[in-house]
Amino acid sequence: MKAQAYINSETAISKLNALKNKAIKEGSEAEQWYWLRLAEAQGIIVLLDDMQNSLTAAKPAIQKTNNSEARTQLLLLQGVLAQNNGALTDAKKFLNAAIVQAQRSALKHLELHARVELAYTYTLEDNFQQALKTNHLAHLEARNNNDIFITALAEDIYGAIYGYMGQYEESIDYYQQALAGYQKLGYHQYTSSAIFGIATSHRYWGKYEQALKYFRQHQQLLAHTKNEGSKFYDYYGIATTLAAMDDCQQALPAIDKALTTQGPIDYKAELYKIQAKCFIKQEQLGKAEQALTAAETIFEQLPDLKDTNWQIETLLIAANLAKENNNYPKAFELLTTYNEKKSRIDSATYSDKIIAYKSTLESQQKDLEIKLLTENAKIQQLTADNQIRTNKLQKLLLLGLSITVVIILIFAYTLHKNLKRISELSIRDELTGLYNRRYIFDYLNNILCGNKEEKQFSIIIADIDNFKQINDNYGHPAGDSVIKAIAKLSVDTLRMTDIVGRIGGEEFLFILPRIPPQQCEDIVKRLLHTVREKQFTLPNGETIKVTISMGICHNNADISDAKTIFHKADEALYISKKSGKDQINSVENVAG
Question: Domain of life here (predicted)?
Answer without folding.
Answer: Bacteria
